[in-house]
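cron nightly-structures :: item 1 of 1
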Amino acid sequence: MTAQRACALSELEQDTALRVELDGVAIAVVLDGNGEVHAIGDTCTHGDISLAEGFVEDDTLECWAHGSAFSLRTGKPLNLPAYEPVPVFEVTIDGDDVLIDTNVKKEV
């Protein structure tokens, strides 16, 4: 499988997550305050909640329901109640296209 277009870079708002679905995998795509694009699994491992509806601060995405924050770089939860990480995917930018391969998890 090769990387697929998830969205346009111009669709992303800084410090906001966008939910996309590729090959049946829900992904939160985030443009952080430094202009870096991240792609992590969109489902909170604590409560089956969409992380894209949460809050972006620095390099974290916080679940709106129970407050677990996940690292955008590693997918690891930074506080309770979540204790399981979410997957992090490699992102490639090609012009205005944000490309993600759901079969390639980012090594951290």
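cron nightly-structures :: done
The two ends are 21 Å apart (CA to CA).
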